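Dear colleagues,

For the upcoming journal club I promised to circulate an example of a predicted protein-ligand complex. I picked one with adenosine monophosphate because it came up in last month's discussion. The inputs are reproduced below in full, followed by the predicted structure.
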Amino acid sequence: MKILVINCGSSSLKYQVIDSETEHVLAKGLCERIGIDGVLTYQPAGQDKIKYEAAMPAHRQAVELVLKQLTDPENGVLTSIDEIDAVGHRMVHGGEKFACSTLLNDEVLQTVEELNDLAPLHNPPTLVGVRACKEILPDTPMVGVFDTAFHQTMEPKAFIYALPYEYYEKYAMRRYGFHGTSHRFVAQRTAELMGKKPEDIKVIVCHLGNGASISAVNGGKCVETSMGLTPLEGLIMGTRSGDIDPTCIEYIAHKENISMEETFEIINKKSGVLGISGVSSDFRDLEEAANNGNKRAALALDAFCHHVTKYIGSYVAVMNGVDAIVFTAGIGENAPGVRAQVMENFKYLGIEIDPVNDSIHGDEQMISTADSKVKVFVVPTNEELAICRDTVEIVTKEIVTETVKKVLGK
Ligand code: AMP
């Protein structure tokens, strides 16, 4: 099957076409500045990137341009849009309604729309993208893969906030967690690398990118994760504060004489390692600055590693043990120094990091020694491939169900 994978933001749309049999990416790209002017990037496999300006007043035009580019006679990878067997959409917030991926029919879209309050920045643009695709490809099945779904197995003791219980009942306020598609993909791959069944192992997945989260996966099921009602909770991130005393929010607003909205803008966009260092949200810049003697850049890196260490330690306790600790996403895959610093404090678990760690940038590799009691891995995440696999599984099931119905004359 040829699957179009789409990830919509408020002014952007990332896309990939994946051949599900080979799992090869046939083409990928990005629409940016939707609703402003419009820039399309397109890269067919093995060829150079093409980038050009094209008017994208709304997501519909962005989808149309992507399809036009994919079927371009000169450098397209499809002869017709009919070659697209299904579309897999990355959906952000599924609330408590979606514990797995699902076919996006009108009823499901209505339910997602009802969850907009939980993710006002993320869910509405996703819905706009899905509806635009449905209009242009009315007969192509669409599947939604939710960032929150994998974490739905958490027990109430892990997801409940210690607020008046009625807020959970009335407003669905609780820990949801995000990056679930990545945590699931990486945890499953780790089991494969260890030659074990997911049911038989305890894994801690450290998804360390510009947005960062950690999850504890016991027997293939998520039992804890660091992000909360929104992706703001948990680890120190590129520009997000992560855990802070909630009183800080009121204190900043009061001292700086700014609104709640402006305060949240600071907590989301001007905090994290950028806020501490004043240098950058990018770890490459921070490492360079720290090496050149910048103390705040060094502090930002130290604080980041400290928080990751703290979460891993608590998740070992939550699971009463751990078999593997895995690093993924931009920092996790590419920053050996961060991995080594974090693992320093786990020698008590019998963890020994192999010097090979220093040379691993984006490759799948065990970075603990062969006799390390707990195994440590780098596993590159691939959310698009996970979305493609889910899409194929759901669409195939649907085809089987429809065929059975026809055979039975129902
Ligand atoms: P992601 O959000 O997963 O795309 O990760 C993006 C982040 O990964 C960047 O902001 C950097 O902080 C980090 N990153 C990417 N490449 C490197 C690298 N070679 N060394 C250190 N950090 C990196």
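Two points we might discuss: The mean pLDDT is 96. The longest helix spans residues 295-319.

See you all on Thursday,
B. R.
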